[in-house]
Amino acid sequence: MAHTITVDQAGRVVLPAELRRALNLVAGSQLRVEIVAQRLELTPQPMTPTPALGRSASGRLTLPASGGPFDAAAATRAERDAEAARRAGA
Fold first, then answer.
1. 3-state DSSP assignment of residue 87
2. Residue 2: pLDDT over 90
3. Where are the domains positioned within the chain?
């Protein structure tokens, strides 16, 4: 998948939507850039931190929209651990 892009006066480039979709890049995604053999190499970095779960008005757990990958099992475990700690401290 080859594309030609242009560097603007501020040194910015825009990645084509097709490439962003293929790599699940969203606003706020971070890329590491390196010079490798006289080429620029962009490598997506893991999204951190994991978005926190919230609560709706009815008390249900909610997940804020981020557009990025999310480990629901890890977030649920963290929420259960936090709840257990709150109960143990009360």
1. helix
2. no
3. 1-45, 54-89
Rounded distance between C-alpha atoms, residue 55 and residue 63, angstroms: 8
Structure tokens at 21: 């979709």
pLDDT in tens, 39-49: 999 999 887 66
| 52/50 Cα distance (integer angstroms) | 6
Radius of gyration from C-alpha coordinates of the chain: 19
Residue 49 corresponds to which tokens in the numbers above? 């931190």
The pLDDT mean for the chain works out to: 85
| Model confidence, pTM | 0.49
Measured in whole angstroms, the distance separating CA 27 from the mean position of its chain's CA atoms is 8
SS3 20: helix
- 1-45: CATH topology: Pemi-like Protein 1; Chain: D (2.10.260)
